[in-house]
Amino acid sequence: MKFIYFFLTIPFYILAKYFVFFNLDSINVDFLKCRKHLQSLNLILDDEIIEILFLAEDHRFQVHYGIDHYAMLRAIYSTHIRKEFQGASTVAQQYVRVITNRYEKSLFRKFREQLLAVLITYEFDVKIIGAAYLNIAFLGSGMKGVDGYLQRKSRLLYELDTLEKIQIVSRLKYPEPLKDKLRWSYKMRIRVENIHSKIA
């Protein structure tokens, strides 16, 4: 499986290098931004929350190289055939989206995101990318990253149990809103139960 993913990712890597060399769409600027951020990390995040992150958001991380081709095909089928939206972004892609602050709904933005994800996955361990993502991700109003969550909740990292770590990761999909907390709580409960069942 890993070899198949490697083979399928080669064209993306070559295109990514081409984009960087000619700095098409300023992709080199964003690549250097990602690299600088990842190199400057000085985080204290335990392994458990990283494992929960990949279990929930990117469970094939050990076989792919920044983009999950199977998830992409599944998402295309689900969206265009079944008319049900389904995401296919890896943790590396989600990290790129946040660090570059590009959220426009376009195929080119998605493609550009994939190229950057391949480049950073080639240079950095996926767990470092996961930790970086948890450090900058929006978790709710006034909560940027795990540090923002801990400050808001007046908690320390070592105090968190497995359930609360699952709740933090669940906020990636459902950030806490200022209003309509009842509906958010319902979605969160389902998401937390879903992730917890995978761990069990």
Total beta strand runs: 2
What's the level 1 CATH class of the largest domain?
Mainly Alpha
- Which CATH architecture of the largest domain would you pick? Orthogonal Bundle
Relative helix content:
55-70%
Order of helices and strands: HHHHHHHEEHHH
Classified in CATH, the superfamily of the largest domain is Biosynthetic peptidoglycan transglycosylase-like
- What value does the Rg take, in angstroms? 17 Å
Beta-strand level of the residues, as a percent range? under 5%
Biggest beta sheet summary: 2 strands, antiparallel
Structural class: mainly alpha
What is the molecular shape? Answer: globular
Distance between the termini: 25 Å
Keywords:
single chain; 200 residues; mainly alpha; Penicillin binding protein transpeptidase fold; two-stranded antiparallel sheet; 10 helices; 2 strands; 68% helix
Describe this structure in words.
It is built from ten helices and two strands; from the N terminus they run αααααααββααα. The model has no long low-confidence stretch (mean pLDDT 92). The radius of gyration is 17 Å and the shape is globular. It folds into two domains: 1-136, Penicillin binding protein transpeptidase fold (Orthogonal Bundle), CATH 1.10.3810; 139-200, no CATH class. The longest helix has 21 residues, at 2-22. It is mainly alpha-helical and 200 residues long. The chain has helices at residues 2-22, 27-39, 47-57, 69-80, 91-100, 107-123, 126-136, 145-153, 162-173, 181-199; strands at 138-140, 143-144. A two-stranded antiparallel ribbon has the order 1-2. α1 (2-22) packs across α6 and α5 crosses α7.
